[in-house]
Amino acid sequence: MTALDTIVVFTADGCPHCRALCEDFNRRGVDYREINLSREPLEMARLQDLVWEHRLPVVADHERVSIGFRGQSSSFADLGLE
């Protein structure tokens, strides 16, 4: 991550929890960079450097990484990423 990427959100097409998280951030005016793994599959290596779980969404905010949104997440298998 660079200094400009204060918050990075890893998402994928078809993930309702990813969509809900991004909608929440947009509604609250949170600045973030979205990395959609369905469209940028090479970024999977970057995500795997941060977490070992195969679930989305993932939010990386400097050293802090969280998985899911409001207690919900989608597996990579459910999203066709495995």
UniProtKB/TrEMBL annotation:
Family annotation (SUPFAM superfamilies): Thioredoxin-like
Claim: Metal-binding is one of the keywords in the record: no
InterPro entries with a match to the protein in the record: Glutaredoxin, Thioredoxin-like_sf, Thioredoxin_CS
UniProt keyword annotation of Transport present: no
Keyword list, A-Z: Redox-active center
Domain Glutaredoxin per the UniProt entry, residue ranges: 7-59
Pfam families: Glutaredoxin
Stated name of the protein: Glutaredoxin family protein
Source species: Candidatus Sulfomarinibacter kjeldsenii
